[in-house]
Amino acid sequence: MAVNLEEANFISIIMRMATGAYISLGMVEDPIGGEKKKDIEMAKYLIDSLRILKEKTKGNLEKEEEGYLDQVIADLELNFVNAKEKK
Q: Is residue 2 part of a domain?
């Protein structure tokens, strides 16, 4: 799915929040510091925020948006558990 990052849309919001969570899980280098660092509490906050977003937008999303949000949350939850176990 191609996303035009010049234009704000629901998918780009999810992507930005998910990227922050992946950075906080130490899975992606921080683009500012250029290093991998874990912040489990921040990752939890961002995952919880995505869950709230899912709940508050229930019934108002296009099928593609809902599927993408579900997929991102599931992947982040799995990686959160793995990161927490390694802590």
A: no
Helix (H) or strand (E) holding 40: helix 40-56
Instruction: Give pLDDT tens digits for 40-64.
Output: 999 999 999 999 999 999 999 999 9
Query: What is this structure's pTM?
Result: 0.84
77 in a domain, yes or no? yes
Alpha carbon 29 to its chain centroid, in Å, reads: 15
Distance, first Cα to last Cα, the chain: 34
Measure the CA–CA gap between 67 and 87, rounded to whole angstroms: 30
**For the chain, how many structural domains are there in total?**
1
What span, in angstroms and rounded, lies between the C-alpha atoms of 20 and 31? 10
Quick check: 54 and 25 in contact, CB under 8 A? no
How many other C-beta atoms are found inside a 10 Å radius of the C-beta of residue 4?
9
